[in-house]
């Protein structure tokens, strides 16, 4: 535990602790979210803490979060979120975990080798994102998904985020931040006081994902200097 405590910087520990306190406070203020929302939020924010360190524990915890969030989304009839996280984000997080484990930085299992995104890979990802988004639009429409336009955009940003995570690009954090913004709007439109805890959760995620991008760029510069 002492080694783990020293692993994070004071700023990272402060960010994680403040995030946890906000999530606990929102669970107290908006108990309608239920214990599952609280567990999912705490799992997700801890995942982001490890993501910021380029540590494979991050995508591992994201798999757990995807399962929990999929269940929460199903209860709110946000089938787009359920399909995206259970059928896409979760499985692709497993692939991302494998990619990160197989590509350690100089043999350090606790830090992945950060890669630059090639133009060819960027074009391929954008094409795949458009394809997946179009496919999911018709699936979600057939299922009577609530707030269909935003749910479809959420699928697009989710796919983009997990694909960039697999490729070990710092841009994955920006894609997740964009997804956080979409999800904040989506859950605000749910019109249920119990969903405010989810809104706070993704607000916290937005801050953490922004820090993740900043830290990955810093780590990338350090790695490229050797």
Provide a concise account of the structure shown:
By secondary structure, the protein is mainly alpha-helical. The chain has helices spanning about 1-5, 10-30, 35-50, 55-75, 80-100, 120-140, 150-165, 170-190, 195-225; strands at about 105, 110.
Structure description:
Helix content is 79%, strand content 3%. The chain has helices at 2-7, 10-29, 34-52, 57-75, 79-102, 119-142, 148-166, 171-188, 196-225, and strands spanning 104-105, 108-112. It has a two-stranded antiparallel ribbon with strand order 1-2. A hairpin with a 2-residue loop joins strand 1 and strand 2. The model has no long low-confidence stretch (mean pLDDT 90).
The biggest beta sheet is recorded as: 2 strands, antiparallel
Helical fraction: over 70%
Quaternary organisation: single chain
Q: Tally the helices: what do you get?
A: 9
Give the SSE string.
HHHHHEEHHHH
Number of extended strands:
2
Termini distance?
Answer: 29 Å
Strand arrangement, largest sheet? 1-2
Form type: globular
The fraction of residues assigned to DSSP E strands is: under 5%
**Low-confidence segments, ≥5 residues, pLDDT <50?**
none
Would you tell me the structural class of the helices and strands?
mainly alpha
- Cα-atom Rg, whole angstroms? 17 Å
Mean pLDDT, to the nearest integer, reads 90
List keywords for this structure.
9 helices, mainly alpha, 226 residues, two-stranded antiparallel ribbon, single chain
